[in-house]
Amino acid sequence: MAGYGLCKFRENIMRKFLLPILTILILVGCSDSGIAIDSSQSEEQKKYEWRLVTSWPKNYPGLGMAPERIANLVEEMSNGQMKITVFGAGEQVPAFGVFDAVSSGSHQMGHSGGYFWKGKVPAAQFFTSVPFGLTADEINAWVNRGGGLELWREIYEPFNIYPIPAGNTGTQMFGWFNKEINSLEDIKGLKMRIPGIGGEVLKEAGGIPVTLPGGELFTALQTGVIDATEWVGPYNDLTFGFHQAAKYYYYPGWHEPGPMLELLINIDAWNSLPKHLQVIIETATKAVNQDTLDEYLARNNQALTELIEVHGVELRKLPDDVIEEFRVISEKILDDLAQEDEVIGRVYESYSEFKKNVSAYHEISEDAFIESRISSTAFGCSG
Question: Which end of the chain, N or C, is less surrounded by CB atoms within 10 Å?
Answer without folding.
Answer: C
